[in-house]
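Known limitations

Files may contain more than one protein. Parsers should not assume a single record per file. Below, a two-record file is shown to illustrate correct handling: read the sequence, read the token line, then continue until end of file.
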Amino acid sequence: MSRRFTPSVVTANALLSGEVVYQTATGEWSAHHHEALLHTDPEAAQAALERAQTQGLVVVGAYLAEARMGKTGPEPLHFREVFRTRGPSNYAHGKQTEPC
């Protein structure tokens, strides 16, 4: 039996910087989770993921990450994805210097 679909965003890492990025409604990539397009249709989510996986000169490791709609946009559901929104954990820089 297949697993029930949960609304998801497409996420990956930017090839040149390694930054965690999220696919937006325009197909561009953003470093901000709340700017991601939340897919509620499994076929549309899979199609978006497949398009992302063809962008090997821009991003690597694209996958679907479960999310829900929040007040300002999609919010991650899993601890790993919450952690990824905060940036590198080796020392405070980048997203970690911004207020939550």
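...continuing to the second record:
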Amino acid sequence: MLIEPKMICMISAYTVTQSVITDCSFVASLIVAAMYERKHNKQLITNIIYPQNKQGKPIVNKGGKYMIRLFFNG
């Protein structure tokens, strides 16, 4: 049986850390979005990761390249 790799198995606020990104408000926003997504089962972070399948869930890119869509001021 072939097991397909899974892009995201669990989203958690505890996996987001501030290191290279010096803007703590951006990191805090990611943590709040992760907590909301997990609590309410509504995609906030995972729906901005590409490539995606037809259901809008991120999928593994065999080339290892991913893109995220970020909005500035709206």
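Parsers that stop after the first record will miss the second one. For reference, the second record is described as follows. The first strand starts at residue 49 and ends at 50.
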